[in-house]
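Async update (no meeting this week)

Hi team, since we skipped the sync, here's where things stand on the single-chain job. The sequence we agreed to prioritize is pasted below, unchanged from the tracker. I ran it this morning and attached the output directly underneath so nobody has to dig for it. Comments welcome in thread, and please keep replies under the output.
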Amino acid sequence: MMSDPAAPQVHDVAIVGGGGAGLTAALYTSRAKLSTILFEKLMPGGQIASTDLVENYPGFPEGVLGPDIAQKMEAQAKRYGTEFLFEEVREVRRKDHFFEVITAEGSTVSRAVILAMGACFRRLGVPNEKEFTGKGVSYCATCDGAFFKGKEILVIGGGDSALQEGIFLTRFASKVTIVHRRDQLRAAPILQDRASANAKISFIWDTVVDKIEGRNKVEAVLLKNVKTQQVSSRNVEGIFIFAGHDPATAFVEGFVERDEKGYVRTGESCATSVPGVFAAGEVRKGAVWQLVAACGEGCEAALAVQNYLEQHKERAGSAS
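Output:
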């Protein structure tokens, strides 16, 4: 019986997100001869592509540049047949026994889905933050650090990202001040030691940003001490914010089960509340925020997809 030429192509698996989890999943499903399509709204690699140096990925004793490993992971997935679409996914829904992934440009039908959207940079929510984004406010040191050569910069945060990116910014800035709402850092001890030993880095404790000021760009920041409530002004031309992340799951609200913060709930083998839909990486509740962990989960989700499709062979066919 001839197939209907008008029927849409059905992929074995659609992967939403091209970070470490999504790219690893694509590598495994493609190598397993499953037709794989990956959706990424920005650039392959996710946050790792905007990280200067990755020092804790196995096999690279001297570290590896984030953009380099992202490009190699993309090339590896493409080598085995992964199809890439650089489009933002707006909805995922059931379509008979299949799934439909919808973007502004069209829709794609697949037999299984892996959600690997990761998380977005969290904003502080202070006055003028949004207005000055790209005009002195940044969330990516490797993207924008070179624009601040010889200038004074504030880094907001106390975790690994804040210290790692703050250290990177000393390549360009004349001075980097790390502002943290508590009186001690959350970052790994090795990063704390490096930051403390760097002559260009200083710290302001128990303090938050109250307001960002300027005319057409950042010129000053109002800082408030959370213990004394005293507000002071500091003249700076750049503010880099590393205040955590929020999962990029708004478009799957009501489709898969999420927790109160929006992270996708998963069970055994990265399975979500919807059979045939799996989640991996930082989008998943309980995920470990490390590249190696995201890659491991991408592998696990890909193997789970293989098992799922093997069990549902009778549903293979054309989508109507």
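Quick observations from my side:
The chain is about 20% helix and 25% strand.
The longest strand covers residues 107-115.
Reply here if anything looks off.
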